[in-house]
Design a protein that fits this description.
There is one protein chain. The chain is an all-alpha fold. It has one domain. It has 8 helices and no strands. It has helices at 8-11, 19-41, 49-65, 76-108, 110-128, 130-142, 150-177, 179-206. The longest helix has 33 residues, at 76-108. The chain is elongated.
């Protein structure tokens, strides 16, 4: 939309900003929400720092482009807009917090010890399985294992199994607790955004 063109929203009395600004904000929020949903539910396993970096990037985009609307009273539309921004920001921030929460749960809780025990049992079961031992011997004889002995191949496979089981278990446990910081951050974000809007409107009235 060209900058010099006026839209119905910009000439109607509601005090709204130019229409292109509203479209840009809606596109930004939709893209951010889609990215967060894809990152959150697109895979399985433990929460990693790449997801945290993605969350930081989304928060940076929101901080750079979104501005609380000025000149509007406490309308339902404004409240819905602020709630949408707060929800998206909370989801993005959840991606950042998830690895930290996962590390905390793994190190300090009984659930973390249970996950480590499950991973150890899974690795031990793999190493003691007769079929897996024969498979390792066959892989070494064919030169497919990349190691010299079947024992080494089986040990490496057991380590990989341990990491996989531990990651899946910790990731699932962390996901069950993520709603707590997400809800808290959404509430805090909405309260802060509403305070900024009221403060800006108060300044405009005094001016």
């Amino acid at each position: 939309m060209r900058a010099g063109r006026r839209t119905p929203d910009s000439v109607s009395g509601g005090g709204r900003r130019p229409g292109n600004r509203d479209v840009d904000r809606a596109a930004l929020l939709g893209t951010a929400l889609a990215a967060v949903v894809a990152l959150t539910f697109g895979g399985q396993g433990e929460w990693d720092w790449l997801g945290a970096a993605s969350g930081i990037a989304l928060l940076t985009v929101l901080a750079a482009f979104f501005r609380p609307p000025a000149g509007r009273g406490p309308t339902p539309g404004l409240r819905a807009e602020l709630a949408a921004v707060s929800a998206v920001a909370a989801l993005a921030a959840t991606l950042v917090i998830a690895p930290l929460l996962q590390s905390f749960l793994a190190a300090t809780t009984d659930v973390g010890r249970t996950c480590r025990a499950s991973a150890a049992v899974a690795a031990g079961a793999l190493e003691s399985d007769v079929t897996r031992q024969r498979g390792a011997e066959l892989a070494v004889s064919r030169g497919d294992a990349g190691v010299a002995t079947a024992t080494d191949a089986l040990s490496r496979a057991a380590q990989d199994e341990r990491r996989t089981v531990l990651g899946n278990c910790l990731g699932a446990v962390t996901e069950r607790w993520l709603w707590v910081p997400a809800a808290a951050m959404a509430g805090i974000g909405y309260t802060l955004a509403w305070w900024l809007v009221r403060r800006r409107n108060a300044r405009a009235l005094r001016g």
